[in-house]
Design brief:
Layout: H1 5-13, H2 24-38, E1 46-47, H3 49-56, H4 60-72, E2 76-79, E3 83-86, H5 91-114, H6 118-136, H7 142-158, H8 163-183, H9 187-205, H10 209-255
Helix pairs in contact: 1-2, 1-8, 2-4, 2-8, 5-8, 5-9, 5-10, 6-7, 6-9, 7-8, 8-10, 9-10
Length: about 260
């Protein structure tokens, strides 16, 4: 069930699953997306076109095309002649995007619970969901927990027979992944998440579509709330740093 973030990119963008059939811009975009979602490229970080041209050993065209792919996924904004910049994580965006996602994952869960062939999916995700419970007992393990949770979500989406719903969920994958990673940094949230995944699997196994839809939406909205809490905490810490710097400058100015 474990895959790299590049696989997440392929699923989210509708790119072909085989690395051999990916275009050069898709390969570059997958690498850059992994860096953004993992936090290697922080919000506000600039992606310098010339530097990436040298890194990947390509011309400017494929890098620019990769930027456009990432912009369509909501990960960067392109500045003409200046490269691209990683988009900020905001309370407004997480609120809006998870309102949509909660509805979509609820519908996904309903359809999966109503699917006569759901037993194969249940068998596929039982192990990873048990793994979530195990990881959640630890005080650390946020990265591993997030990776397993991503793989379960991916399995659910790829099992859908409705290609329109599958496509809409995949389109949100990369941007929501950033907020999910942020939300699951808290141990309490991971423990609650593991419990909800357990109950969701039980509802799908029993074919209880209404209950499955409700639980799936709850998981998504709980992730939204946890991400907002983390964003507000980070914003508060940043304000404290700014104030401390301002006081320090003021003291130095008085001494001079």
């Amino acid at each position: 069930m474990h895959r790299t973030m590049s696989s997440t990119f392929e699923a989210s963008s509708g790119a072909r699953n085989s690395e051999l059939t990916q275009t050069l811009p898709e390969k570059i975009a997958a690498t850059l997306a992994e860096r953004v979602v993992s936090g290697s490229y922080c919000p506000g970080a600039r992606l310098i076109e010339a530097a990436l041209v040298r890194e990947f050993g390509v011309s400017h065209g494929p890098v620019r095309d990769a930027f456009r792919i990432l912009q369509n996924s909501g990960l960067v904004v392109i500045h003409p002649y200046r490269g691209a910049e990683v988009t900020a994580l905001t309370v407004r965006e997480v609120t809006e995007i998870y309102q949509v996602r909660a509805a979509l994952v609820g519908l996904r869960a309903r359809w999966l619970a109503e699917d006569p062939g759901r037993t194969s999916l249940v068998a596929q995700v039982e192990g990873p969901i048990a793994k979530l419970r195990e990881i959640a007992r630890s005080s650390d393990g946020a990265s591993e927990y997030t990776t397993v949770a991503f793989s379960i979500n991916r399995a659910f989406t790829e099992s859908l027979s409705n290609r329109w719903l599958r496509s809409m969920l995949q389109a949100l994958t990369l941007q929501t992944s950033r907020y999910t990673r942020l939300a699951l940094a808290a141990g309490e949230r991971r423990r609650e998440s593991a419990r909800l995944w357990d109950t969701l699997l039980d509802a799908i196994r029993k074919g209880d579509a209404k209950r499955a839809e409700r639980i799936a939406s709850t998981i998504s909205l709980a992730t939204r709330d946890a991400a907002i809490k983390q964003l507000q905490r980070l914003e508060f810490q940043e304000r404290l740093v700014v104030r401390a710097n301002e006081r320090s400058k003021s003291r130095r100015a008085r001494k001079s």
